[in-house]
Amino acid sequence: QGKQKKARKYAVMKRMISLRDERIKEKDRAKAPMKKKEDSSAIKEREVPQHPSCLFFQYNTQLGPPYHILVDTNFINFSIKAKLDLVQSMMDCLYAKCIPCITDCVMGEIEKLGQKYRVALRIAKDPRFERLPCMHKGTYADDCLVQRVTQHKCYIVATVDKELKRRIRKIPGVPIMYISRHR
């Protein structure tokens, strides 16, 4: 007759005694935290993060019709794929007048894409689009849009880029417009 194998219990941990246990010597024992007496004359301070009132739509007078919409490169490309008229579909979405705004960085990005995206370039040069000049170095459009939206909370950002949407969601009070299911 051989030894009987004993199945080991799953996630078993050795028992540990707490530092307040009586079996531990007095000098090694953890002390109970002493409660400080509260001074009734002291000013009570609570840590509550203050958000500016401009983040709440009922107080934000900047974010109202006519809406200024910052358009990203891929938003224009996806609107072409979905066969949407950009300005008309924005107005249908918001039920108000919309002014699509396009920065120099986004324009440079579309121009860099070359001949394949000439339709997107023609749409971006539409006179209904408002051109916003950029004063910074480089032509990385995502950084430009995030920086502009952080400074001025009067824009709606139109993008399909997941990474850019994730970055903009971290900025409170900035709405995002995107294309899903060809709408």
Automatic annotation (TrEMBL):
It holds the Pfam family Fcf1. GO terms for biological process: ribosomal small subunit biogenesis; rRNA processing. Residues 24-43 are annotated as: Disordered. It is found in: Nucleus, Nucleolus. Keywords: Nucleus, Ribosome biogenesis, rRNA processing. PANTHER family: RRNA-PROCESSING PROTEIN UTP23 HOMOLOG. Part of the small subunit (SSU) processome, first precursor of the small eukaryotic ribosomal subunit. During the assembly of the SSU processome in the nucleolus, many ribosome biogenesis factors, an RNA chaperone and ribosomal proteins associate with the nascent pre-rRNA and work in concert to generate RNA folding, modifications, rearrangements and cleavage as well as targeted degradation of pre-ribosomal RNA by the RNA exosome. This is rRNA-processing protein FCF1 homolog. It comes from Platysteira castanea.
